[in-house]
Write a structure and sequence with these properties.
By secondary structure, the protein is an all-alpha fold. It is 65% helix and 0% strand.
């Protein structure tokens, strides 16, 4: 592994560590029985936000692990769809990017049509 891929791997691992640090939020999901319906509604809304945040951080952690695997096997920075090089600016902004900007836009359009 050359110096550049070592630095990329280290950055991805740093992102992964930060993305998994909030797993302490799971305690916030626990249901507490309250007599006041308003408090129960507020806690339900708070639990929903925690679940959404956990889902998001889990998805990012999964993508980060996949990016680390791509660094290890030499395919990091290559679009999984069209196999073109992913722009360095895109990788700088989103180090776990799997798709080039063109393929990502196509995927986003397909997702929005399906929804």
């Amino acid at each position: 592994m050359n110096k550049n891929t070592t630095a990329i791997r280290r950055e991805l691992e740093s992102h992964l560590k930060r993305s998994t640090e909030n797993h302490g939020l799971r305690e916030s999901i626990r249901i507490h029985q309250l007599a006041d319906p308003l408090d129960m509604t507020q806690q339900a809304a708070e639990r929903e936000m925690v679940v959404l945040n956990l889902d998001r951080s889990t998805a990012i952690a999964r993508r980060l692990r996949a990016a680390i695997d791509r660094v290890d096997n030499g395919t990091y920075g290559i679009c999984l769809e069209c196999e073109a090089e992913i722009a360095p600016n895109r990788l700088e902004a989103i180090p776990w990017a799997e798709l080039c900007i063109r393929c990502q836009e196509n995927a986003d359009q397909s997702q929005s049509k399906a929804a």
